[in-house]
Amino acid sequence: MKRGMYLLAALFMVLGLARAMTPAGTAITNQASASYIDSAGQSRTTTSNLVTTIVQQVYAFTITPNGSETNPGQIRSNLPGGQVLFQYVVTNNGNGTDTINLSTAQGTGDNFDLQNVRIYLDANCNGNVDAGEAQVTNVTLAMGAQACVIVAATIPTTAQNGQYGNLNLTGSSVGSNNTLTDTDNWARATATTAAALTAFKSASPSGNVAPGATVTYTISGANTGGSAAYGVSVTVDNQTKTGILVEDTIPSGLTVSQMPTGSAGAGTVRYVYYNGTSWVTLTSSLLPLTGDGTKKIGMLIEGTGAFFPQGAQYSLSFTAQVPQNAQAGTGYANSAVVRFNDGTQNRDVTTNTTNNTVGASYDVKVGPYGYPEGSATGTYTVGAYTITRSGDAQSVAQVYSGTNVIFRHTLKNTGNTQDSFTLSLTGAPSGWACQLVADDLTTPINGPVGPAAAGGTYDFALKCAIPANYTGGPVNLTVTATSVGDSSKKDTTTDEVTSILSGYAVDLAARGYSGDGNANNDNPASQSANPGQTVYFPLEVYNAGANPDVYNLTATVPQGWSVVFYPDANCDGVPDGAPIANTNLLNPGQKQCVVAAVTVPAQTAPGNNPVSFTATSTTVSGVSDTVSSQVAVNLVAQVTLDPDRSGTVTSPGTIVYTHTLLNNSNAAAYCDISGNGGAHGWTYQYSTDGTSWYASLADVYVAPNGRTATLYVRVTVPAGEPVGRVDVNTVRANCDVTTGTPDNTYEATDTATETTTVVGGELRLTKSVDKTSAFPGDTLTYTIVAENIGTGNLTKVIVSDPIPAYTSFVSVSATATGFSGTYTILYSTDGSTWSPTAPTSAPTGGSVYVAVDTNGDNSITDQDIMPPGARITITLTVQVQ
């Protein structure tokens, strides 16, 4: 076994994994949540800070076929002075991209050294050196990728018949500083004056194939030896035939439906088929043939005596079809054998091995609960509302302000391989607090969900709190599911809260030009942006009609882009307040300034992209106006500020929120941090170390390429605040992304929202992880602390923590302090069935729940009390896949 394979095998024994490693650079994120009833009798939820661990790279590779100098993995023959070709496959078995250095070594226990040794990249993996294929000294391979290489060498002209020379292809991993090597790949070249047939194998297409595709295999070669070749005895149709036999085992699962084609420079061609017992003449009546590991297809070149002269060539081709339901990663390795007699003895020549792999096909569907692929019917009830499903949409006829409306959804992996998915939401009106949560209706979703197997499903929900003063509609909320494996694969579903308004005429124009009757100046100026950046278009909406009206704001942008509209109270082109989906009520002749904030997705290619904005009357849907512009996308500059936070606090009291500022740019980011909270006289302060606090932060440094900085926001609530009062703070990171000195030019920006509620008692959640970076197979230990830091009792306190994507559950335990009398710690994996015994398993994407039973009924109800000062500490251990 090679040194590289020792490392890989040892790693897999430790992990106990039967699946691929998590790719290097993957961010594993985790956030805990809790539900409880406060001292005012109100149901509350709160979330912990978000913790992140980055998966590190593991290096491993192989070179095949293996062989020692005394027992080489491949043997090739030719005349003295002739060339021989040795075929190899280099495979990257690590979890990230690596470069493999390649070199050769001559043998010491042989008769001669090979000459003119060269290494070629066999781009089409046909085992031969084709015109234009380059010499290489290394290959760079992505995770799981392979490369075919050929070592070409010349037998010395002085070599005698039967003498041989040995040659070894060795490799070393650049990523491991060349400490990881593969050195047991010996091959042998034999000098001969007898007949010598070459044999090469090609597959078209090479590499990845799609389910249902066809692969054409071609076996070819020539007599490059010193004399004519003889045939071998082969029994066909129960009769003895003599000839050169070219045979190929049909790869298991592939189906041959057409007769093969072939030719030979001498002799007569007969197509034959081995049915697992004997050879028979192949005719179209025997087709189709499906490979099962025993069936072979072949060509017998019939002739007597030394009938196949020097230089004579041969070729055999046949086509096989991949099953329509083939799963991604299914491999079809294939090599052929040519049997002949060189005048002294029978010889077998094995071709190079072709490798085809069924490529991953990613796709996703998302729809109403139970109907991810649409065609939904029926109703279901969540809380006080009945949800009606229809097609790929669902709606609720009427809701009331100040309540929650919840739409449940089902996502389905419709690809042919395991995949994870990101979920996003658009369309939430100004003031709505919407959140995507797990199907327990509490646990927030951060980062990708899954992974889900091909055909697997995942249930989740959209939970929206409707403000007490909100009226209007209809409200259309669009949920988008996007494949992590292929971000171009996505699907949407629509949730509607129904309502009716009326409207008349509208003139939409660039700021300062509405209502002037001149359509030539209506279009706003074009903007430029980096991938992941938000740009602003100042607009005016003018009521050109005779009656008051409200106008919905929509946009048409390239696929994957998003648009959020903001009010612009002082018409200075800068957003003021929370996002809006429509204007205020405008009287005839009245105008309102708005800003369209267009967000360009990460990794968007540079170039000009058209965008348009439309104002549509909510009274008469056919009344609308559209303006157009464009966004010129620059190179990468992207930061994200996560997560959105919510918490509770007493009056007086203090709460500290933690956010992670992630720089996905390819240059350092210098970020200015500020917020817009404090509507009720509350104090907001910011810090990068949790010790020194400021009204805002300037030039917070974040290193490039996925590095992070931690931001702390301290909220101080004065005395006298009423229970139930809510303040929302939007924390904004404005970042100058540069390789030089920051000049306060913001190339990237992002926000996170903090919603703080005054309660009689307060549950504080904090979370930590023992590693900020880890390798596949490492364990991550999360510590979650829930404590009542208020002055009143809390009841029915349930703390939940999800099992993050790319990890597997190992264990969970908990302790409690500060509780009165006799109590028992209870565990659950569904939030409703409780046990004093900690669970031994939990699915990835699922959650574990912990609570304290204080009244001895072995369940968690509003009779279970968490007094002031009490604390629950949970330790969750997972393993990186």
TrEMBL record:
<dbReference type="InterPro" id="IPR047589">
    <property type="entry name" value="DUF11_rpt"/>
</dbReference>
<keyword id="KW-0614">Plasmid</keyword>
<dbReference type="InterPro" id="IPR001434">
    <property type="entry name" value="OmcB-like_DUF11"/>
</dbReference>
<feature type="domain" description="DUF11">
    <location>
        <begin position="763"/>
        <end position="825"/>
    </location>
</feature>
<protein>
    <recommendedName>
        <fullName>DUF11 domain-containing protein</fullName>
    </recommendedName>
</protein>
<dbReference type="Pfam" id="PF01345">
    <property type="entry name" value="DUF11"/>
</dbReference>
<keyword id="KW-0732">Signal</keyword>
<feature type="signal peptide">
    <location>
        <begin position="1"/>
        <end position="20"/>
    </location>
</feature>
